[in-house]
Amino acid sequence: MKILHIIQRLKYGGIEHLVFSMLCHDVKNVYILALEGPSEESFCQWPKLKEYQSNLFFADKKEGFSLRTVNFVKDICRTLSISVIHTHHIGPLIYGCLASSQCASIRHIHTEHDIWHLQRYKDWLIQYFLFNWNKKIHLVAVSKDVYTQLKSYFPKMDISTIPNAVDTRYFIPGNQANARQYFKLPERATIIGSAGRLETVKGHIYLIEAIRLMPLDYYLVIAGIGSLYQTLLTHIQTLHLSDRIRLLGMVEPMRLFYQACDIFCLPSLNEGMPLALLEAQACSVPVVCSNVGGCAEEVDPESGLLVPSQNPKAIAEACVKINQKTEKPREFILKNFNFDTLISHYYQLYEKI
């Protein structure tokens, strides 16, 4: 069975890493198509992709609808004898839907990783039309919260729930001292890590504000790139926190980043089911997280804490409190979010639909 995952852009992020892990699991049968961005850009940002470039395709689509991209998807499906198109987010859904509708033998699965974009009427209307026009699409939610909201938007759709997961053979506890030395982080500080695109929705500004309210030996390190890099850097300097906060930019390997941390914090304004929470906990790092989307389902209740979004005071108090706990969250991840289980569920669904 040949599977083609379609994503918006092949950059180093949660969804992209999940899809890439699925490719690595079954490299003979799984392919990835990125709608936007040239291959050179992806390989530069994420060098490991080069090892799998024969399984990767780049439409390099420009802004706006592209009939050429529809034909590009169809050509790949025919050339590779694709059995299943698996799309992630609304852009890939559009092109996957148009391609699968013209290939009778192709099954189509669409995974919704978050739901807040459907609050925009245009996005909801597009998906409503596609789901009613192409009846072969099967919808997958990544959390109970996403499932519930999807049912409210599309009550007639058949929806499965398959929680996100991580490779617990790769994301493991490690030597904290060595990890800190690699990133040149202070050895004796309490290090709070955060990771994600430097965009408004990720809420880093509130975590930066929270550091001011924590003891002086608490140190924040943020992994990720995005349009707010300079804005956040300027804010850090304005608050005179340059000696307590570092923006690392693009980080690889992320496993080493988590291993360097005492606490992982995700202060997002909106989320679906973020992989970073699972990755950090698999490395036995307790988490503090905004209580948004499906995050509550991911946080180990024994070691982790949920906080209101956009609340620096609550973040600061939770980080101090969690540092006094001794419970470790890895067993929670092994039991509930194992990557082998995710693969098994998806392949059963591929066969079933």
Automatic annotation (TrEMBL):
<dbReference type="Pfam" id="PF13439">
    <property type="entry name" value="Glyco_transf_4"/>
</dbReference>
<dbReference type="GO" id="GO:0043750">
    <property type="term" value="F:phosphatidylinositol alpha-mannosyltransferase activity"/>
</dbReference>
<protein>
    <submittedName>
        <fullName>GDP-mannose-dependent alpha-(1-6)-phosphatidylinositol monomannoside mannosyltransferase</fullName>
        <ecNumber>2.4.1.345</ecNumber>
    </submittedName>
</protein>
<dbReference type="GO" id="GO:1901135">
    <property type="term" value="P:carbohydrate derivative metabolic process"/>
</dbReference>
<keyword id="KW-0328">Glycosyltransferase</keyword>
<keyword id="KW-0808">Transferase</keyword>
<feature type="domain" description="Glycosyl transferase family 1">
    <location>
        <begin position="178"/>
        <end position="333"/>
    </location>
</feature>
<dbReference type="InterPro" id="IPR028098">
    <property type="entry name" value="Glyco_trans_4-like_N"/>
</dbReference>
<feature type="domain" description="Glycosyltransferase subfamily 4-like N-terminal">
    <location>
        <begin position="13"/>
        <end position="169"/>
    </location>
</feature>
<dbReference type="Pfam" id="PF00534">
    <property type="entry name" value="Glycos_transf_1"/>
</dbReference>
<dbReference type="InterPro" id="IPR001296">
    <property type="entry name" value="Glyco_trans_1"/>
</dbReference>
